[in-house]
Specification:
Protein name: Hydrophobic protein
Largest sheet: none
Shape: rod-shaped
Keywords: Membrane, Transmembrane, Transmembrane helix
Transmembrane segments: 25-42
Distance between the termini: 78 Å
Structural class: mainly alpha
Helix content: over 70%
Length: 54
Amino acid sequence: MLWILLLLLILVVFGFGFAVQALWWVAAVLLVLWIAGFAMRGRGGGRRYGRSRG
């Protein structure tokens, strides 16, 4: 019985570690996308809210 509980504890800790690692990767990807979007908006942002030429 003790071995089963130990195995379950190891599986829970491993799953939690995997989830945290996956969340770090998701956060890193979202940060890169946010920075890329901020850089793209910074270049052409003046035309969006400025006067229209037509």
